[in-house]
């Protein structure tokens, strides 16, 4: 069995049921936004949808188009698209040929696009209108690319129109012999230590992700999954795999404003919503400010809110559950190297353990180990390692990096963690982010979680700054809530409950940058504040 079998099954069992909906609030005319006349809008671009049969048909047509262009099993086809209705049919069309899908981050610069195309040996590129400038600027570097497929209007002269050409291709699934052991996709690491690494996965890994996700969240046919994060990332796509496995509807929302999220959940009947930490914060803040009124929305059907992709502050979830007491809550931990979310899983039945990332997920094993590989005791910090069917085959074309993280089938995550007396795992920090000050280890996540409980703080990141005496000191970059005013003295007073060595030695009021999957961009902060460009910041806002 391969993952496309689920799509073909859904096309036969539920041909006329909606598979995917795309909501684009930016296309909503202002007058309709103001007066709530969305349902009568003639602008089809605000809401578009496709059925399971249309989804499978488009994937088959694209697969056959690729085959006519000489693309064969083992070739690589890169995908550079914003979330849209064509994203998943493109992905599955690639898989149906036996080629490898190579999703790319939509924030990549032209140099990163060129680097990842070459690293992955991608000889074909599917891209959208947002990337025309970047792709055009590196055409000379992409001379080895055989085919450019463009998804959108106003097709560049060097590309072929995806929308036009698939219309003339067969809608029958191509006869390509595939097994679970065949390679399926190359994903890229977040690039937190430089340019990304290419992560090679098999069809078996994709299948395991389906099974893990559905087991954890119990998706059924009538569940509706609201998906907001980017589909190039394993997190969003693999959470959607639960809908794929059950034939449920999924909604792609192209926007993150609180009112858009709540309105879409209401209009589309969303039962499961995956949010990132900043969006949870924004929704709660908007409710507290009175910017949105929950009485305006139909949310009784919303049963599960889950968060992932980064450490989750317990105080934030307690706030959420106080506003939405009937919601089930869950968190999932994973890496692209472990085919996305779920290798560690809290479980909706363990909400009393908010703050933990959980225990080994369905089909997974976990350990927390010392540098010598022995397992730690209770409350002792070590490195989290995981083992299961979703572990990557390797870092593509990088055996040295592979050997550093894959040992006897175990994936060394680089995340520092500890266990409580019930075996629940708590993330402490990234191994590379640990601050060593005066011989003491400081784990930034612990300080960040503490500071986020202060009611004036919207977001916070803690990094190490060089210090001649202590080696490093902890610096807190603090982003205040809109309209809030705060001083350095206030923060220092709030931190007096922390052990002295954990208290931030420098307070910087500034924006906290996060990437599209919600992770704090600490390399960017280190470049700003440790790279010779540290600028004086005001201590009040």
Describe this structure in words.
- It is a single chain.
- With 541 residues, the chain is of the alpha/beta class.
- The protein folds into three domains: 4-255, Rossmann fold, CATH 3.40.50; 304-430, Luciferase, Domain 3 (Luciferase, domain 3); 434-530, GMP Synthetase, Chain A, domain 3, CATH 3.30.300.
- It has 16 helices and 27 strands.
- Strands 2-1-11-10-12-13-14-15-16 form a nine-stranded mixed β-sheet, with helices on both faces.
- Strand 12 (272-275), helix 11 and strand 13 (304-308) form a beta-alpha-beta unit.
- Helix 1 crosses helix 3, helix 3 crosses helix 4 and helix 10 crosses helix 11 (277-289).
- The longest helix is centred in the N-terminal third of the chain and has 17 residues, at 52-68.
- The chain is globular, with a radius of gyration of 23 Å.
- Residues 31-44 and 532-541 have low confidence and may be disordered.
What is the straight-line distance between the termini? Answer: 57 Å
- Strand fraction equals 25-35%
Q: Largest beta sheet, briefly?
A: 9 strands, mixed
C-alpha-based Rg, rounded? 23 Å
* Net shape: globular
The residue ranges in which pLDDT falls below 50 over 5 or more consecutive positions are 31-44, 532-541
Our count of helices gives: 16
CATH superfamily of the largest domain: ANL, N-terminal domain
The assigned structural class equals alpha/beta
Major beta sheet, strand line-up: 2-1-11-10-12-13-14-15-16
CATH fold assignment of the largest domain:
Rossmann fold
How many domains would you count in the coordinates? 3
Total beta strand runs: 27
CATH class identity of the largest domain = Alpha Beta
Q: Mean pLDDT across all residues, rounded?
A: 89
Which architecture of the largest domain per CATH? Answer: 3-Layer(aba) Sandwich
Helix content: 25-40%
């Amino acid at each position: 069995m391969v993952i496309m079998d689920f799509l073909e099954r859904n096309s036969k069992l539920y041909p006329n049921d909606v598979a995917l909906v795309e909501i684009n609030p930016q296309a909503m005319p202002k007058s309709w936004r103001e007066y709530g006349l969305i349902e009568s809008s003639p602008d089809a671009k605000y809401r578009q949808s496709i059925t399971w049969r249309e989804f499978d048909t488009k994937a088959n047509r694209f697969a056959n188009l690729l085959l006519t262009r000489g693309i064969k099993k083992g070739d690589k086809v890169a995908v550079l698209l914003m979330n849209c209705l064509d994203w998943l049919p493109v992905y599955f069309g690639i898989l149906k040929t036996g080629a490898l899908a190579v999703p790319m981050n939509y924030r990549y610069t032209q140099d990163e696009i060129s680097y990842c195309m070459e690293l992955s040996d991608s000889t074909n590129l599917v891209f959208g209108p947002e990337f025309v400038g970047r792709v055009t600027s590196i055409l000379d570097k992409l001379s080895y690319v055989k085919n450019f497929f463009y998804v959108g209007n106003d097709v560049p002269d060097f590309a072929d129109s995806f929308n036009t050409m698939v219309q003339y291709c067969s809608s029958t699934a191509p006869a390509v012999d595939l097994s679970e052991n065949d390679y399926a996709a190359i994903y890229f690491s977040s690039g937190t230590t430089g340019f990304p690494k290419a992560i090679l996965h098999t069809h078996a890994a994709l299948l395991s992700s389906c099974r893990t996700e559905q087991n954890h969240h119990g998706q059924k046919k009538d569940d509706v999954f609201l998906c907001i994060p980017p589909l190039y990332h394993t997190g969003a796509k693999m959470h959607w795999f639960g809908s794929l496995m059950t034939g449920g509807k999924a909604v792609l929302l192209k926007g993150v404003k609180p009112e858009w999220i709540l309105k879409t959940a209401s209009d589309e009947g969303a039962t499961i919503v995956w949010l990132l930490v900043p969006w949870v914060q924004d929704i709660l803040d908007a409710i507290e400010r009175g910017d949105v009124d929950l009485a305006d929305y139909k949310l009784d059907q919303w049963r599960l809110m889950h968060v992932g992709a980064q450490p989750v502050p317990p105080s934030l979830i307690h706030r959420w559950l106080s506003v939405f007491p009937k919601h089930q809550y869950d968190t999932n931990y994973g890496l692209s190297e472990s085919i996305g979310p779920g290798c560690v899983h809290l479980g909706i039945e363990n909400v009393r353990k908010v703050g933990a990332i959980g225990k080994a997920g369905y089909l997974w094993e976990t350990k927390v180990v010392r540098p010598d590989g022995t397992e730690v005791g209770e409350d002792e910090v070590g490195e989290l390692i995981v083992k299961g069917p979703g572990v990557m085959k390797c870092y593509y074309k990088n055996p040295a990096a592979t050997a550093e993280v894959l040992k006897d089938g175990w994936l060394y995550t680089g995340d520092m963690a500890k266990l409580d007396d019930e075996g629940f795992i708590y993330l402490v920090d990234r191994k590379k982010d640990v601050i060593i000050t005066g011989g003491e280890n400081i784990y930034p996540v612990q300080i960040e979680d503490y500071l986020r409980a202060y009611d004036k703080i919207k977001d916070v990141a803690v990094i190490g700054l060089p210090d001649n005496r202590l080696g490093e000191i902890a610096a807190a970059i603090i982003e205040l809530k809109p309209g809030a005013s705060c001083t350095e003295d206030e923060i220092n007073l709030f931190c007096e409950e922390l052990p002295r060595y954990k208290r931030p030695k420098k307070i910087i009021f500034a924006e906290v940058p996060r990437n599209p999957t919600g992770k704090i961009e600490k390399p960017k902060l280190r470049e700003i504040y440790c790279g010779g460009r540290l600028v004086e910041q005001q201590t009040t806002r």
